[in-house]
Amino acid sequence: MNINDYRRAMDQIVPGAELKERIMKQTASSRRFVPVRRIFTAALAAVLTIACLFTAALAVSPELRTAVLSFLRMEEREQVPGGSLDPGQSSPDLSQTDIGTLVKAQYIKLDGYQYGFSGGLLSDLTWSEDYRSLLDARFWEAKDGTLVPADVGLNTEEIDITFRGERYRGELYWFIRDGQLTAFKGDPLGIDTRPEDQWYVNTIPGRTDAVLLRLYQGRQMDYSEYPILCHLDTGETEDILAGIDVESPGRAYAYEWSEDMRRVLILYNPAPENQQTWLCDLEDKSLTLLRDLTGVDAEFANFLDNNTLILTACTANEEDIWTDITCWIYDIPSGQAAKTLDQLPYYRWWDEVPCGVIPYNKNCLYVSETGQVAVIDLTTGARITVEGFTYQKGDEFMPSPSGNKLLYYSMDPDIEGLGITQLGVVDLENRTFIAFERDGYENLRDQGIGWSDDSTVSVNASTPDGKTQYLLLYQF
After folding, report:
1. Which of 34, 339, 343, 443 could staple 82 via S-S, CB 3.0–4.6 A?
2. Which CA distances in Å does 444 have to 46, 78, 418, 470?
3. If DSSP codes are grouped into helix, strand and coil, which group holds residue 243?
């Protein structure tokens, strides 16, 4: 995350409960709105959640489908750090500690919002006044309890594309470290935005040779976008959907790709009452309405693997609020669908006693009225009981980038900021759930929480006076 992420976050609006439900209907079933109570903290949490919307399915062993998942609340409690940078103290400043024997924590004290953390590196990016050009970039990695400068070999690529009468320009920055590609661009916002600035960049899981450039137009209900493949070794761009009339169904506003990028799910018409999902096959150049293809009346879909979809349908009441959820597994080559979840109550966080299904890609959590929790494998419908844990209103879960873990956190509703009182991780592969309590959380204002990678959870925080920022990293 860098300063542009924060600026983008602050430009968002936190909707009311009814509008939140409508927004949720615009996204695939694997994507979940994380409710937070304050505009500033909600926006930052939303930014950190963005990376979690592109998770891959988890291959779970047969033993998981019959096992009990064990919950362990650690006896050790975290002592949350606090305090501002001392006069003359360098920034960034690193300290670290162990929370029991299961969690390692690193606390990075910072002098501003401009720092980010990704791929195990802390970054400080300095942009031009218009946020289009990178003037300076510094990176550090943690070694032996200290932050050591890292040379990432940063590359710059000039982007200049004219597509359907619109010109898109700017600079793309990227580097490869430990086999992982990181790519980003400047991000002018508000009145500074020009039509040429209207593109995003996304890395492609498992690839370091190319990125997707998302060219977009419009805002809110008029928003639409189109993907272009950019080859980093040559700088050449490719219309990956060439020869397919993807505009015939209407305005395409979201794309979800299979791992091999031979197929893509395309969402059209953001208005909930008109939304449609189509499956595009790049090899046979076909574009088919999902309902016509599957014979299932499902609003949403996501890829389980290259040839398999999870289909999701939700029933709404007279107030247009979801009440229950049904899921199917659909095999694309054979055209066969199998129901794995049948009209279970849909979880609504604002209910007095929240209960029901919370979907996370191929898995979901089922919370009973008494607070008992089970993991449901949406490929089979099998339930795995979470033993020893009772859900409380306000508890939150968030999937890791690969989908093999869930971040758990609980918040204090009476404190400024998120007020994270408990933190933990559900490991779906190893069938464990560990969590610890946090002492002194009121000394920092927690502003956002999310995954940095599959093993590292990050919390952005600040001192109450806002003069010093903290990046708290937890390795499970």
Report:
1. 443
2. 19, 13, 10, 8
3. coil
